[in-house]
Amino acid sequence: MTTPQPPWPGTDDPLAPPPGCPAHGLGPGGVRRLHGPEAEADLAGLYEKLRAEHGPVAPVLLHNDVPIWVVLGHSENLHMVRTPSQYTRDSRIWRAVRDGSAGPDHPLAPVFTWQPMCSFAEGAEHQRMRGAVTGAMANIDHRGIRRYINRYTNLLLNDICQDGQADLVSRFAEHLPMMVMCHVLGMPEEYNERMVQSARDMIKGTETAIASNAYVMEVLMGLVARRRAQLEEDFTSSLIAHPAELTDDEVAAHLRLVLIASYEATANLLANVLRMVLTDPRFRAQLSGGQMTVPEAVEQSLWDEPPFSAMVGYFAKQDTQLGGQRIRAGDGLILGIAPGNVDPVVRPDLAANMRGNRSHLAFSGGPHECPGQDIGRAIADIGVDALLLRLPDVELSIDESQLRWRSTILSRHLVELPVHFAPRPPQDVMARPAPNAPRPRGDWHVSSPPVRPPAAPVPPREPADRAPAPVAGSAAPAAPKGSWQRFVTWWRG
Ligand code: HEM
To answer: Where are the compositionally biased (Low complexity) regions (predicted)?
Structure first.
C-alpha cells in the first residue's frame, strides 16, 4: 500500500478532497484527521484503521490540519524515545512551529510549546534539570509517603463513608494524588478544592485555564520564596538545594510539572484501577481469592488504559526511517502510548492477563522516562488497597455499559464512578500512625510484585535494540507479601 504523504506545504494532489472536507475524517491529501467526529467517536478504532493502512507509523493531521506522524508500533515507539541522537522533545525544531501552522493559538499549544524545563530539554541541559528532579525524589521519605497515602485515603473515605454512596472519581481519585503531592512538595496547607479545580482546568484547556495556571504559579512561587528563605525537609527544598542550582523560575516550573503530571495521570490511573477492580470479574474473584494483587491490577490497567494515551511529541533531528516510513528532519511524531500498548506484535490476544508485566509504554522510556512512576504506582496501589479494606462491600451503582469517558488524543478520563456500600462511621485516622521508622531513602519500589514473563510472546520486529523490553529501571524487588497483606500488618501494628 502506498502511504499518502502528509500535505506538507507545497502538496497539490489533484485527487485529494478539498481542504476541510469532512468526508470520512479525511483532510487535505487524503490524510486522516486525529480530531473531529471520527476521532472523537472512536479513537482506538481510528488507530487500528491507520495501522491496517500504513503499518506501525502513520501520517495524520492534528487540529488546524497540522501534519504529524503517529507512532502505533510498540517497538517503534520504544526506538523513538530511546534514540536521542535522532529524536528530541525540543519542539522548537518542529516544522509546524517554525512555519507558524502550530502557533500559540493551536489547541495543543500548552502541551507542545517549548518551556525551560526537563521535559523539553536534551543533552547536558536535560541532565542538569532532570538530575535535580530525580535527586529531590531520592530524598523523599518513601515510608512516610506510604503512611500519608493511607492517611489521606482514610480522610477522604471519612467524608463519604456515612453516606453509603459516592462518585469515586470526584470524591476520591481526583483528590488523593493532589493531597499526596502537595504534602511531598511541602505545601499540605495549600491543598484545597481550588488547587484540584485549577489543575483540572489547566489540563482541559477551558477558558479559565490561564487564570488557573496563574493561581497555581502564584502558590508555587510563594512556596519557592519561603523555602529559599528557609529550607525544610521536602521536595521543594531539595530542588532548591540541589547542586544543579536551578533558578527560582526553574524550580517553580518543575514543581508545576510534577504537580500537574502526577495529578492528572495518577487520578486517571486510580479511577481506571478502581473501575477494573469493580467491574472485571477476573480481578474481583482473584482479589478475594488472593491470587491477583492490586499491583498486578495496576499494571494491567497501565497496559489497557494508560493514563496518558499519547504525547505530542517527539521531533526528528535528521532524515531517518521509522516503521518503514521516511521521516524528514523537522517532522513531528506523536508518542502513541495507547496504540503501542495494543500493538498485535506484542499483544496478539488483548484479553490475555499481563500478570504484572511492566513493558508497557505508560511511562514512556529512554532519557525522558517518567521519573515519578513509583510514586504514581504507590498512590494507586495503596489508595486502592486501603479503599477496599475500609469498604469491602463496595459495588458499582450503575451498569458498566453506562460508564462514560471524556477523551482527547492525550488522555481518556472516566467521568464518574458511582458506587454504593453499607454506611459506616468515620475512623480516627490520626489514631494509629505507623511506628516512627528510620528514614531509608531513595527506594521507591514499594509494593509491586516481581516481574513475570510476558503473557504474550514478544517477537522482535526490528533489530534487537528496538525490541520491546521491560522498562528500564523498573525491575521490582521480590515482594514477600502483597501490599494488601502488608497494609493489614501495618494497620494492626
Ligand atoms: C500514573 C502516573 C504517571 C504516569 C502514567 C506518568 C507518565 C509520564 C509520561 C508518559 C511522561 C513522558 C515521558 C516522555 O517525555 O517520553 C512523564 C514524564 C514525567 N513525569 Fe510522569 N507519570 C506519572 C506520574 C508522575 C509523578 C507522580 C511524577 C512526580 C512525582 C511524575 C513526574 C514526571 C516528570 C518530572 C516527567 C518529565 C521527565 C523528563 O522529561 O525527563 N510523573 N510521565
So the answer is: 466-480
Distance, CA 491 to ligand 1 centroid (Å)? Answer: 30
The minimum-distance atom of ligand 1 relative to the CA of 118 is 40
Ligand 1, from 370, 384, 411, 448: best to mutate by most atoms within 8 Å of Cβ? 370
Evaluate whether the domain defined by 124-492 bears CATH number 1.10.630.10. Answer: yes
Contact 263, 278 (CB under 8 A): no
Q: Average per-residue pLDDT in the chain?
A: 82
Q: What gap in Å lies between CA 207 and CA 210, rounded to an integer?
A: 7
Question: pTM (2 decimals)?
Answer: 0.83
C-alpha cell at 491: 494497620
The span from the CA of 146 to the CA of 150, in Å, is 6
Tens digit of each residue's pLDDT (9 = 90 or more) over 196-222? 888 877 766 566 777 888 888 899 999
Q: Is a pLDDT exceeding 70 seen at residue 443? A: no
Q: Which three cell numbers stand for residue 22?
A: 469532512
Residue of minimum CA distance from atom 43 in ligand 1: 370
Write out the DSSP string of 440-474. -BS----SPPPP---SS----SS-GGGS--PPTT-
How far is residue 121's CA from residue 119's CA, in Å, rounded to a whole number? 6
394 and 387 in contact (C-beta within 8 Å)? yes
Let me know if 353 is exposed, middle or buried by CB neighbors in 10 A (0-12, 13-18, 19+).
Answer: middle
What average pLDDT does this structure show over 298-324? Answer: 96
| Helix pair angle (373-390, 248-279), 10° resolution | 40
Residue that has been written with the C-alpha cell 475500609 in this structure: 390
Residue 362 Cα to ligand 1 middle (Å) = 9
- Cell triple for 121: 530539554
Which is nearest to 142 in space by CA: 473, 459, 437, 408?
A: 437
How many angstroms separate the alpha carbon of residue 265 from the centre of ligand 1?
8
The residue whose CA has the least distance to atom 15 of ligand 1 is 368
Ligand 1 pocket check for 82: Cβ under 6 Å: no
Domain range annotation of the chain: 1-51, 124-492
What ligand 1 atom has the least distance to the C-alpha of 184? 30
Indicate the angle between helix axes 176-185 and 142-160, nearest 10 degrees.
140
Q: For 406-412, what is the mean pLDDT?
A: 88
Cβ of 118 closer than 6 Å to ligand 1, yes or no, is: yes
